[in-house]
Write a structure and sequence with these properties.
101 residues, alpha+beta, 3 helices
């Protein structure tokens, strides 16, 4: 099945199901604030594993106690696709209850 860009309406509808995530230009983004740098580092490792499983990778930034993600699908010209939302949902499963920074 070919990957296709989502419409603005589809993006908005899906974002409604992912509190804390937003569409910033042509990317899905979210920042998590964790209790410690070690916790943030551990989350990065877990996200990296999910990205390998999905064969879909985000820009992933580790801060002192934050983890920031920005993702789109390069194979369709950098648009937002279902692959990006699959990754976002998996990341949310790793960090339930963590507030956005």
């Amino acid at each position: 099945m070919a990957v296709a860009p989502l419409s603005q309406k589809e993006i908005e509808d899906r974002l409604a199901e992912l509190p804390g995530w937003s569409a910033d230009a042509d990317r899905l983004t979210r920042t998590y604030r964790l209790g410690t740098h070690f916790a943030a580092t551990a989350m990065v490792v877990h996200i990296a594993q999910v990205q390998e499983e999905l064969d879909h990778h985000s820009d992933l930034t580790l801060g002192y106690n934050t983890v920031a993600l920005a993702v789109n699908t390069h194979s369709v010209g950098g648009a937002i696709t279902d692959l990006d939302f699959q990754l976002a949902r998996r990341v949310e499963d790793l960090a339930p209850g963590h507030g956005a920074a």
